[in-house]
């Protein structure tokens, strides 16, 4: 199935997403709230999922693009949203493998000899990725097209870039830098901010919600770990000062709407750190899978052909759960990464100096854990839309479809109708 047909003619009736939106609102309004953890926590892969916390969309209906963007603009006014930030996912940033940060720490003389610094290399590294994606990536080109469709210059901002390594430490660093960006944004009183994030950007957002919840013990431990690596970073110092200056949740949390696309189920979300939360996941099933797989789960070990063709939807989202991180390439950062894994109650990274038996035991436990846990689609917080984007949605093993501009009207309309409905005040 290709993206739904886009109607541009004016005067067409109400957007045909209405029925779908009513379904979403009806489910979310009755979704059982989950308890707010006092500190950072990880989601459970074995906990039952309530049917009213997700919606299966097997065949997205035809979308009137003009109406979808009108709905989105109306949502902006209703929720007083002053800015929307787009954030890319893992490996989409300026140092996805950690090579540049390691070079800056371990071989600064070599960079000096070459007449280049780490920041220059990061810009180059990000630029070629954006050139390959064009407007079909969460970047400045996508933001410019989104702004054009909304007729709101500079409303959507795609300039935030993080290293995008696949580990806890880099996501924690990104969360602090993103929160610093949000706090530095000059907004009218009571204005809201919206975040759209692809892949693990959603887990960066989850960490932001915990920082905004501002639990004192969790906050102190988080910054204690981070200072060992980022103690001189101005963003870390500024965010820490801001959070310690107030008691209780930071007020920004009550004005923050979050939308994730293909985010693996990892960190739990703290309800005191966001206002609205919606997830999109490319999810497909068939009669064979339905026999032994719950409708809100999927297959991960399914053969190379099924993975390449995204037969069951977004394979990366289902695979990249807890236990699939890669420790930082830079050995000086591994201790802090392991400490964050413990703080986030995640599966510990491999031991640094373990013998053969210790490593064998570790990998045996990890494989057993992954076999039990793989296939999770639905977050315990917010509402998840399990969308079948069709057979043609094979980009990045089904993980890249969310960024295709052809699907923007569908996403804009669905987000607007969800957040403008009664569900906005009743999310788990």
* SSE order, one letter for each helix or strand: EHEEHEHHHHEHEHHHEEHHHHHEH
Total helical elements: 16
What's the N-to-C terminus distance? 32 Å
How many domain units?
Answer: 1
Oligomer: single chain
Q: Average pLDDT value?
A: 87
Radius of gyration: 21 Å
Percent of residues in helices comes to 40-55%
Class by alpha and beta content:
alpha/beta
What report would you give on this structure?
The chain is an alpha/beta fold. It has one domain (about 5-425). The chain is built from 16 helices and 9 strands. The strands form 2 sheets. Strands 2-9-8-7-6-4-5 form a 7-stranded parallel sheet. A two-stranded parallel ribbon has the order 1-3. Helix 2 (about 65-80) runs parallel beside helix 16 (about 410-420) and helix 7 packs across helix 8 (about 200-215). The longest helix has 18 residues, at about 355-375.
